[in-house]
Specification:
This protein is α/β, with parallel strands linked by helices. The chain is 46% helix and 17% strand.
């Protein structure tokens, strides 16, 4: 579990690699993770509500999103898979659709009640900075027409979605199918990269007293502290500004700072796969 609050000072330590070196390390770490998954014949799930940036984050973790010609995908209601080929096709990573839909339910059922073990879960949240389809945005703007109210509404939706995921994790664990760990990826940190906002995000997602901490602490006690662990890590992928109605928030991270956070999340995944 998280051991210290997030701050600009702790997150902004100077990277020791060049931009090219960072991209190379991201790609090589990702390949190392996929190779371990393939050998174990298991998988990793990426979950979270729609619009928090699950697919874009997975593309950046693999290094694909760091290419100069990368184009972010559109929103999808279907399950997305990254597959490996070694004699036969094997799903190494599954991105679960975030919108409430039969496709989401089917994807969660297949993941947590299927034949292959789920090593771990990367659950993505975005501190309320959720990107919506135009029609959804128009409808929601009628009730939440300022940014603070919009973000609070979205953070509450994240809590409810997470409670649903906890039920799947418990059920899968009882059947001996994992997962052994869960990483809460607090995404789009480039939009709240200053100490006051970082501390607020830490309190909400990672600190005792917050709803996520309470749910994860109870989950760990239920499954056994030695059989399940969790952590919460700030991260970001695409360095995009955010606009809601007339209000805008600028992205304030540099690519090197973003890459350092991506490497931190990759290292956390690699460490857990190696230990489990």
């Amino acid at each position: 579990m998280p051991v210290e609050p997030w701050s600009v000072a702790t997150l902004a330590a100077r990277a020791t690699l060049t931009a090219y070196g960072q991209r190379q390390q991201i790609a090589s770490t990702w390949q190392k993770i996929l190779t371990k998954i393939m050998r174990r014949q298991s998988s990793i799930a990426i979950t979270g509500v729609g619009g928090v940036g699950k697919t874009v984050l997975s593309d950046h973790l693999s290094g694909e999103g760091l290419r100069i010609d990368y184009t972010p995908p559109g929103r999808s209601v279907n399950q997305e898979r990254k597959e490996l080929y070694s004699g036969k096709r094997m799903t190494a990573l599954t991105v679960v659709p975030g919108q409430v839909s039969p496709q989401k339910d089917k994807s969660l059922d297949e993941l947590f009640d299927g034949q292959r073990r789920v090593d771990g879960v990367i659950h993505v949240v975005s501190n309320g900075f959720v990107t919506l389809r135009e029609q959804d945005a128009r409808e929601l703007a009628q009730e939440h027409n300022d940014l603070d109210r919009f973000r609070e509404f979205q953070r509450n939706k994240e809590v409810e979605d997470f409670k649903e995921l906890i039920g799947y994790v418990k059920s899968s664990h009882r059947k001996g199918k994992g997962p052994a760990w869960l990483l809460l990826a607090v995404n789009k940190v480039d939009l709240y990269y200053e100490d006051t906002s970082l501390k607020d995000a830490y309190r909400h997602y990672a600190a005792p007293g917050g709803q996520f901490f309470a749910s994860l602490d109870q989950l760990g006690a239920s499954l056994g502290r030695t059989d399940f662990e969790w952590d919460a890590l700030p991260v970001c992928a695409a360095l995009d500004h955010f606009t809601w109605e007339e209000e805008g928030v600028r992205s304030t991270l540099l690519p090197g700072q973003r890459n350092k956070l991506l490497l931190g999340l990759l290292k956390a995944v690699d460490d857990r796969i190696s230990a489990s």
